[in-house]
Amino acid sequence: YALLYKLIRFIQETNVYPIHHGILHETWLVHPKSPYSSCPLIYTLDSGQAKKKGLNLLKEELELLGTLLVRICKCACPSQLEDKPDLFKLSENSRMVKVCDASVDILSEILCGANVVIDGDAGWFYAWFKKMQDSYMRTSSHYSPFQTYGVPEGKLLRAVLTGVDVFRDTWFQLEGGKWSFPDHLFESFVHSINYLEYMISGKQVGPLGRSAYTDSRPMRVAFDGCV
Fold first, then answer.
1. Most C-beta atoms within 10 A of its C-beta, which of 22, 85, 89, 206?
2. Measuring CA to CA, how many Å separate 57 from each of 45, 64, 115, 126, 198?
3. Is 226 helix (H, G, I), strand (E, B) or coil?
4. Distance between the two ends of the chain, CA-based, in angstroms?
């Protein structure tokens, strides 16, 4: 929990940079209308600031945290960058997102292993996780009509598990240890211990704590419409 607090403090004091762009499809009714034709898909945190805080995060971890902050935790709607001068600073080469406390609260649950369902994404995030470097097919006790995938994320965030629900929307969770038996015996052993703890306590075990959001009672977030 001390590491979780340290990471949250770093996130509150850093900026988030859009690093990819894509076409915005106005297909989801709840998504606010936008006059812009594109919106960033992936964001990253400042690696230099992370190192100053003593956090040795990999590029993949920085991108995952940045993207979750803006697109899942709703720090701000990616399609409304120019409409939010109080949330965004414009520079010559990039746009820097000011991280808001509300998004950090949600991210804290995700870092503790919350099972998250992204309503209305039709599997976009599932496909994104699947395409990540070193993603691999794996078994899981969580329901998914499609193959579940694991994605190693580094020494801090450990691993992502992802699949889709009955409506083909993405679900994912961060795990305290990846399941890759028999290739990684120690990690698989840690995962087994975490699974036993989950069975006993009824709480998900993530890389930085525990969460009451399980697959039977997931954290549901709205898709932002950017694809």
1. 206
2. 10, 11, 23, 23, 27
3. strand
4. 34
Contact 12, 108 (CB under 8 A): no
Angle at CA 220, nearest 5°, toward 119 and 17?
80
CB atoms within 10 A of CB 82: 12
78 within 8 A of 40, measured Cβ to Cβ: yes
CB atoms inside a 10 Å sphere around CB 102: 11
Q: Where is average pLDDT lowest: 25-39, 63-77, 174-188, 209-223?
A: 25-39
- Residue with token string 């083909």: 168
Compute the chain's Rg from CA coordinates.
Answer: 17
Q: How far apart are CA 224 and CA 227, in angstroms?
A: 9
**In whole angstroms, what is the distance from residue 127 CA to residue 189 CA?**
28
**Reduced to 3 DSSP states, what percent helix, strand and coil does the chain have, rounded to the nearest 5?**
30, 25, 40
Q: Length of the chain, please?
A: 227
| The two three-digit tokens of residue 15, written as one number | 């900026």
Q: How far apart, in whole angstroms, are the C-alpha atoms of residue 140 and residue 13?
A: 36
Residues 161-206 have pLDDT tens digits of 999 999 999 999 998 776 565 665 566 667 667 778 777 887 888 8
Residue 98 bridge partners (DSSP): 15
C-alpha–C-alpha distance, residues 205 and 214, integer Å: 10
| Segment holding 205, helix H or strand E | strand 204-206
